[in-house]
Prior knowledge:
- Chain A is of the alpha/beta class.
- Chain A has helices at about 1-15, 40-55, 75-85, 100-110, 135-150, 165-180, 195-205, 225-235, 245-260, 270-285, 305-310, 325-335; strands at about 25-30, 60-65, 90-95, 115-120, 130, 155-160, 185-190, 215, 240, 265, 295, 300.
- In chain A, about 45% of the residues lie in helices and about 15% in strands.
- A 6-stranded parallel beta sheet of chain A has the order 2-1-3-4-5-11, with helices on both faces.
- Chain B is an all-alpha fold.
- In chain B, helix 4 (about 60-75) runs antiparallel to helix 13 (about 215-240), helix 5 runs parallel beside helix 8 (about 130-145) and helix 7 (about 100-125) runs antiparallel to helix 13 (about 215-240).
- Chain B is built from 17 helices and no strands.
Amino acid sequence: MKKLLTSVAVLAVCASGAALADTSGKKIAFSNNYAGNSWRQAMLKSYDQITKKAVEDKVVAAADVFTTADQEVPTQAAQIQNLILQGYDAIVINAASPDALNGAVKQACDAGIVVVSFDGVVTEPCAYRVVVDYEDMGKQEIEQMKALHPDGGNLLEIRGLAGTSIDDAIHKGLEEGVKANPQFKIVNSVTGNWDQTTAQKAVATVLPSLPDIVGVVTQGGDGYGAAQAFAAAGKPRPTIIMGNRQDELQWWKEQKEKDGYKTWSASIAPGVSTLAFWVAQQVLDGRTDIPHDLLVPYLAFTQDDFEAVLPTIPEGGVASKEYTLDEAKKAIEANIK
Amino acid sequence: MSVEAVERRAPRAGAAGRARMLRSMLPAVSLAIVLLAIAWLNPRAISYFGFNLMLNLAIPIALATIAQMFIIAVNELDLSIGTFVGFVGCVTATWLRDAPLVGILILIGSIGIYALLGALIHLRNLPSIVVTLGMSFVWQGLAVLLLPKPGGKAPEWLSAIAGYKPPFIPLPIIAAILIALVVHVGLMRTSYGAILRGTGGNATAIGRAGWSLLRIKVTMFALAGLFGVLSGMTLIGITTSADANIGNGYTLLAIAGVILGGGEFVGGRVSPVGAVIGALTLALAASPLLTFMKIPPDWQVAANGIILIIVLAARVLISRRER
């Protein structure tokens, strides 16, 4: 409480004086529950780039990253409690569970710490959530299909990791898209777990039983696997929505060069971690007008601009976008309206 | 032990006695070292508030470790305790809150299943590792059925107990002492406790002396089930909400805790006080120590493993000297 009062006092002083570097004495920690895939690696890299510069420019005093050894919920809960003890002013979280960390998150809030969650968000009301509009991504996939196939046709859906909110939201968006465009019909859906190998196996299993397919709607990380399955079965190549992975965009480029193949690509940018960082910084800066639920757009590439980004993605990686402070402010503004 | 045997061992008593002493001190010493390191790295953590935060999640681990200890005491191993704790957690966050009576019945029933497992393993002479590995998938499946996606909420009374702040001494420390004392008195200081442990040492002798080995196995497995239930409920009281995978890491932590606490896989040699201290040490070494050391993220996972290996290696070195 005392800490809270002093920080309020500090903010009051700062607000009346120079607006710059109000947060130069603040320490922000990042509690991450998993680092074992390319998306998470890209996420950590983006975060490191932006925060290192922020520390150098004395925007914040420290921005340390903590990754738990396993993907267990209690481990991360304990980690958050330790970060409270370390005296951090804000904690950015990519959570192992939307609900089961609420106890620890509440303790952090009670200690006067700003908590911002993203990707794996937490439901505790005192925390901020940076959420990607996955539902809209699903809807947009159908819209893009419509642009390429105005007459409609049969679609194959590849779903993500079962039981996650992300899979649920994209699926919901796809269903709504199909409802609005009845010329399309999802004839089958398989589970690809956002993984090329799993997706390839799953698609190969159902392919023989499928009618003619005009398109495959995906969740990212599964488009290249689907393409491989179609090629192996000697079936005509449908329009496969891609998910910003390097192998997917590379395949798209090859196909485009061959016969002008057209599709669309979208996914959540791992750099959204940097937006969460700036949200924490802005709240520490004394802003009280930031809504606790922030919706941010996904990162999409079209026929015209995907080749420009391809060389910047490391092999096996995924396209990202880091937020600068100004871009973050803009993203926040878009949510206040 | 006969008079002869005592006499034969007498000359060795000096060295062996010292090693044994060292062995029983080791859990406490390693806990002290970890605490000192934490105090040095982050003095702020050594406070009422700090101990509360650092140790509250160690209590469910300590309870799961005690559960595992009961099983290890009779020369068996329980690979299902982690998922069982997760299952109990899901029951606690759903049934126990919405329909307390049904919830209590399910939990008592699950202790009954543990007791039956003990009977099955004894009567059919099955390897416990196989049976409990199978059961771990059963508990996990049931947990996912109950809570397909994370959620649920701890009953208010449970969160209230877990959040209680007694004067002067943080709740987790009181809880740890209480658990250690109760189990120590029950298992180490009563005559039936000696029989229970004796089964791990020499089952034939205990059987010849007229004790029912079946009853002993059933008792130990039921006790393990009971402490598993307590562990799951405590965990949910602290986290306030459940996840079907919440306890998965506890299986190995519990085994490591028993061994670190001076227990042996065979021979009925276990120590409840050591097991609780072992669990606390593991919990502290794995998380707070690591966080306070500010290790680069790329190395954190490896560092966690290295700390555990160092702590357990010290334990193995000392027991070797004893032999």
